[in-house]
Amino acid sequence: MSVLLLVVIYLIFISLGLPDSLIGSTWPSLSQSLEISNALQGVLSIIVSLCTILSSFLTMKLITLLKEKGVIIISISLTVIGLLIFSYAPNFIVLCIGAIPLGLGAGAIDTTLNNYVAIHYKAIHLNWLHAFWGVGATLSPFLVSFFLTDLNGWRKGAICLACIQAVILLVTICTVKVWKVVELNFDKKEVNEEVEVKKVGFFNSFRIRGVAFALISFASYIAVESLTGNWFSSMMVFGFNVEESVATRWTSSFYLGMMIGRFLSGILSLKIKDKNMIRIGEGLVLVGLILMMCNFYMPLMPIGLVLVGLGCAPIYPAIIHSTPERFTKELSPNVMSIQIGFSYFSTLIISPLYGVVAKYTSFAYLPYYVLFFLVFLMIGNEFTLHLVKDKSKLLDKLNKKTTC
């Protein structure tokens, strides 16, 4: 039964990835169809991110009231509603309204399933869980690209994704009894060992040695991923006059690279340490960006994009998984919460800001913009590793403050 439930959870994570790449991959035709500014994509990203933050913060209360299965069913229902609103939106205001249920649904699913799998299943499944998110994010632009035969084709694409989400919702509802059986029969040995958490407070968490650079590296990674996924299609269409259906298919190769990379990194993580997985990922992203800068030969673009996706694949899971090792299990929850907060900061500010920058410069500069944050990712990661070597010094700043 627990294996069957795991299959259902993987299917649900595909549903989480489906809407994530919709806005970025269809934006060129969507913006032209509704006759709105190219830079307004950032506004939708902000709305989705704010709603994702809100639902993430409320998830634990919702789980108490509705249990995991209830939260997931409601969340998938919200994404279906959001996609349908998108498909029939006559103007930008209605698009913004549709972004609200999309964000609310995504945040609750993400938080609920990550926590559930971390407690009840082996660690390798966390890597593979995010790989299945990549399946959904890859399928989305690929499927939508077939509908982009005219300016309103994106509407049919959104309806197609809504139908797929509805099928996954139906499967989830039909397996409610499986959740109940598995919850009663989970082996206690699978539950993570409890650790006495050292609560230092929200603001004091920033004073833990190495945290500042950890936040820089984590936020920079999110910037690399979101910039590439959200803006590559626009770069190709507006910067290099590539046909939109082609650019959208190329965008799917980024998520394909992440999907394959996370399946591989889940296996490789059994042999390779987290810090080395991050370095390998950074190197692949760098090579991919260099190829994308060679815009004089267009076939290099999708190859470079795949490499960027492969490089991004192990970084997020490795940073999350290495947090208890870097900052100790006692301090890990404090660091984890502000790391996630900074990831949303990147989504809210950095990715939308590129729309403004590109409007007044050129969409063709995307690889250089991404490279800027890759450098900060590398620097932040290496400084963090150096500063957390001596665990006895992690709370030095806090102890000095107390002594004073």
Short structural summary:
The protein is mainly alpha-helical and 404 residues long. It has helices spanning 2-17, 22-33, 41-88, 92-120, 124-145, 153-174, 176-185, 202-205, 211-240, 244-268, 274-293, 300-327, 332-360, 366-387, 396-403.
Written overview of the protein:
The structure is a single chain. α3 (41-88) packs across α6 (153-174) and α9 (211-240) packs antiparallel against α14 (366-387). 80% of the residues lie in helices and 0% in strands. It has two domains: 1-184, Up-down Bundle (Growth Hormone, Chain: A), CATH 1.20.1250.20; 195-404, MFS general substrate transporter like domains (Growth Hormone, Chain: A, Up-down Bundle). It is mostly helical and 404 residues long.
Please tag this protein with its features.
mainly alpha; about 80% helix; Growth Hormone, Chain: A; globular; 15 helices; about 400 residues
How is the secondary structure organized here?
Blueprint: H1 2-17, H2 22-33, H3 41-88, H4 92-120, H5 124-145, H6 153-174, H7 176-185, H8 202-205, H9 211-240, H10 244-268, H11 274-293, H12 300-327, H13 332-360, H14 366-387, H15 396-403
